[in-house]
Write a structure and sequence with these properties.
alpha/beta; ten-stranded parallel β-sheet; 20 helices; 48% helix; 15% strand; elongated
């Protein structure tokens, strides 16, 4: 580290110039003289920085020299390529000088950790371009390849604009890109370099707790990408007052440029009406009777407005008023999640499922949490059979139950609804 820093220009020119300006102002130096002095100082400082940069030692040279010295000191044979052998020494030295950011991820390779810490430690005011370039090349050489690894790096290491740009180029933000909660802030830093053929935003957390999500959606509005928006928390836990992203989503849908092909979450009636014609899959949560009535008109006309739509999935409560419900549009793959199935709601849940059934029956029915009361689920399946409900694929429920109980339900579903039956873990059934 001493060798690296000794050859690092390290001049914070804006800070130095600001200091000169303050002194000249304090001494009441005339304006034209101040301007001339500052111009000369700036020129001299930049010349000094360029000269220093030409003498800049590469990180690889320093690592090689350090390895030679260690080998000589220990009387051992030189091992120039075995960086992992000296990991603890390098990490300790870099950490002593300057360490910022979150703890490093344990699953990154040992050599990657070294260079990630170097990125943080070498120059708190920003790395010279040559050194930035070499650092990114070394990171690539340690085995970082896919986008998620680069985004892990951006999430954990403080980088200046130059390094961020080089990392963006290294990660190749084209093709299919999938971004989850933990990478949103990092992706925002390289958003201007992204050119994906398909961007998947797969968000599990509550959007209210992810402020950069709204910022990212607004930043994408003028892009021409294909996009899938999976707001899993909104779909699983709809709010009485609507999604906190509703206004932003309406702007996204009305952009005229972004091609939203899939959406999962909660929408108001006006935002549902703004869905673009590019949409193919819609997973929509219904909070209560008032919300359903708000959605009904647009929901009934979706097939005519969205000619490409093949998947339509609704998440509803077993406690909805079945009298106000209308059959789902007859898309190719209709799904229905019904939550809140228990002994006291079996009759109501049966009426809800029957009222929403499209003309060709359901592709899948899903009952999260219903296996907690296996007898209630069995009664529901029998009642649905009497109501004329049919499934082309099958029925799934959570949580998992033992083989004997599942076998009984499997027989009921097969005989009464015409499909298969599975039990799954709670998280799995919502995915």
């Amino acid at each position: 580290m001493e060798m690296l820093m000794a050859h690092d220009p390290g001049l914070n020119i804006p800070s130095i110039i600001s200091g000169f300006e303050n002194v000249l102002l304090h001494e009441d130096v005339p304006h034209d003289v101040r301007r001339s002095v500052i111009k000369d100082c700036n020129k001299t400082l930049r010349k000094c920085q360029r000269a220093s940069a030409k003498k800049l030692l590469s990180i690889q040279v320093v690592l090689t020299e350090a390895t030679k010295e260690a080998a000589m000191y220990n009387g051992q044979e030189e091992e120039t390529n075995d960086l992992a052998k000296y990991q603890n020494i390098i990490v300790h030295l870099t950490g002593l000088l300057y360490l910022r950011g979150k703890p490093l991820a344990e699953d990154m390779s040992r050599n990657q950790n070294i260079f990630k810490r170097l990125t943080n430690a070498l120059h708190p005011r920003g790395l010279p371009k040559d050194r930035s370039t070499e650092l990114v090349e070394l990171l690539k050489a340690t085995g970082i390849r896919d986008t998620s690894q680069w985004l892990d790096l951006l999430s954990e290491v403080k980088c200046d604009g130059t390094v961020s740009e080089l990392l963006a180029k290294a990660m190749d933000l084209t093709g299919h890109i999938e971004i989850s909660d933990g990478h949103l802030a990092a992706f925002m830093r390289v958003l201007s370099y992204a050119r994906p053929s398909l961007l998947v935003l797969d968000i599990s957390g509550d959007p209210e707790d992810i402020p950069c999500l709204r910022e990212l959606l607004v930043g994408m509005i003028d892009a021409t990408w294909k996009v899938e928006l999976r707001l899993r928390h909104d779909f699983r836990h709809p709010r009485a007052d609507g999604s906190v992203l509703d206004v932003t989503l309406q702007q996204v849908f009305r952009s005229g440029r972004l091609q939203v092909t899939k959406f999962r979450g909660q929408l108001s009636g006006s935002t549902l009406a703004a869905l673009p014609s590019s949409l193919k899959d819609l997973y929509l949560a219904v909070k209560d009777d008032d919300h359903y009535r708000e959605l009904l008109l647009t929901l009934s006309s979706l097939q005519g407005r969205l000619p490409r739509m093949k998947w339509l999935a609704l998440h509803v409560s077993a406690c909805l008023d079945a009298a106000s419900l209308r059959p789902l549009p007859g898309v190719n793959l209709p799904y229905l999640w019904v939550s809140g199935v228990e002994e006291a709601t079996v009759e109501g849940a049966s009426r809800v499922v029957a009222a929403l059934q499209p003309s060709g029956g359901y592709f899948m029915l899903l009952f999260p949490g219903a296996c907690e009361e296996e007898e209630a689920l069995a009664r529901l399946v029998e009642q649905l059979g009497r109501e004329g409900v049919r499934v082309r694929r099958g029925v799934a429920a959570s949580p998992r139950i033992d083989g004997g109980k599942a076998e009984r339900l499997r027989g009921l579903v097969e005989r009464g609804l015409g499909g298969l039956f599975w039990t799954r873990d709670e998280d799995y059934i919502w995915r």
